[in-house]
Amino acid sequence: MTLRTRSIIASVVAVIILVLMGLILLLQYSVTTLANLALQDIVSPSVDSSAQLTLEQANASGALSDYIMLSRAESLDEYRQTIGRATTVLDGLRDDLSGDAKLADLVAAARAAQRDWVKADAEPSITLMEAGRKQRAMRQTNSDQAWATYQAMVQASAALHDALNAQRDEIAAAGKSFTRSLGISLLVIGVLILIGLGVFFGGLRAWVLRPLGHLRGDLQRAAREEGHTSPIRPSGPPEIKAVGIDAELLRRSLVREIDEAEAAKEGLVQDAPVVAAMQREMAGAVPPVPEGLAVSGWSQSAEGVIAGDWWDVIPQGDSAIALVVADVSGHGPSAGVTALRVRSIIRAGLAAGLAPEVVASMAADACIDDTHFVTAILLVIDTESGTLTWCNAGHQPAIVVTRDKESSLCDPTGPLLSALGGEWSVRTQFFRPGDVVVAYTDGLVESRNADGEELETSALSLLIRGMDAPVREHPEELIPLLLGQVRHRAADWRRDDVTVLAASRRT
């Protein structure tokens, strides 16, 4: 099963679980919300109204008794007002609770009970009082029928009040139940999310990280082993397995090319020992450099094994080094011979501590009878003074990039080295921790892309400035990365010898 399929299945399952939990929560929320609305809009006001009904009925009974006992007209008015308010409350409850049959029946029963009490007690007693028959009115209001109807009215109102209270309690309990259910649901969702994350990271480790670890180990073994014969074993899901297969094909291709190169080198050593000796002599090497500096160089010939380009690093005391990048016109063995001669002069002069402009003049004198000319840039880095001094004899300008990614160029300070001679000068600038200088030959910037455009110095400077600070401080990482970017752009790589030398001052 591919990683894509596994990801889709896991995503669908997660979405289904979340949708189901969301629907459950939405349903519970809807039910509880409706119940709360009913509680707020109808039930709670009705409970208050039923309590007021009981109070008004009790006040009406008290006012009636006071009227009969004391013959006060104010008590009669109070009775009529309170019984009127009780009737109004019953009308309101009837309208509000008409949608609930049970409660509507209780309202009707309370209304009927109040009417029965009024007919059995209040109305005949008031009539007798108005006729001046007070004693008769007192017996009427204390009769068994009057008390029975009053008790029935009180019980009916209490039954209505209790029913409304019970319904309010049920709605409140439903709200509490929802809150509890919501908490449980959220807890379940949290547990499911944690389980999902555990499954995700477990799957990531089993399906991606572990196969990638195996692939990385195989690649490291294949890279370290002499001859690169350790195979790369594809494993894991199809996507990673395909990468392993491609890596194994690449390893086999590299091994084949290495074998062919070794065979060609052996043939060169056997058939042309002088050329092989020149190749070994021209091979650049980095000697011990002052503390805080890092240097690396790379060179590739466009024709055969002898390049007209070269780079060199020459120590100058405990705190300074000299860097050289040079390019001889033409290609092949004759250019290599000129390169070997001029390189020896420049190396000897710089090793003796001569000024760069003097060394350039000496190198030009060595070309007086030569058909080739030479471009060269000589750089001296002094960590004690924190400076970079250069003499550029018609060569490509070296690029200096500071720690803050500001760039400058080591432009020419004199003509190229040839039989025509000339004069050379030097220039100096600060070279602080975090700075890097990159010198190169024209083979690097003369490569053309698919549109036939050459790589300009400004574009090369932009590539260097775009690298992270740790890369710029390690020339052994900077040069392969820079070459990879330039070579990826080029459509005609190896049209000329290519040499790159980089030095950085570490922070």
At the fold tier of CATH, the topology name of the largest domain is Phosphatase 2c, domain 1
What's the main sheet like?
5 strands, antiparallel
Question: What's the alpha carbon Rg, rounded to whole Å?
Answer: 51 Å
Unreliable stretches: none
SSE run: HHHHHHHEEEHHEEEEEEHHHHE
By CATH, the superfamily of the largest domain comes out as: PPM-type phosphatase domain
Cα distance spanning the termini: 49 Å
Mean pLDDT: 86
Report the β-strand fraction as a percent range. 5-15%
Describe it for me?
With 507 residues, the chain is of the alpha+beta class. The protein has three domains: 3-193, Up-down Bundle (Four Helix Bundle (Hemerythrin (Met), subunit A)), CATH 1.20.120; 226-266, no CATH class; 286-505, 4-Layer Sandwich (Phosphatase 2c, domain 1), CATH 3.60.40. It is 63% helix and 13% strand. The protein contains 13 helices and ten strands. A hairpin with a 5-residue loop joins strand 6 and strand 7. The relative contact order is 0.07. The model has no long low-confidence stretch (mean pLDDT 86).
Give the tags.
507 residues, Four Helix Bundle (Hemerythrin (Met), subunit A), Phosphatase 2c, domain 1, 3 domains, five-stranded antiparallel β-sheet, 63% helix
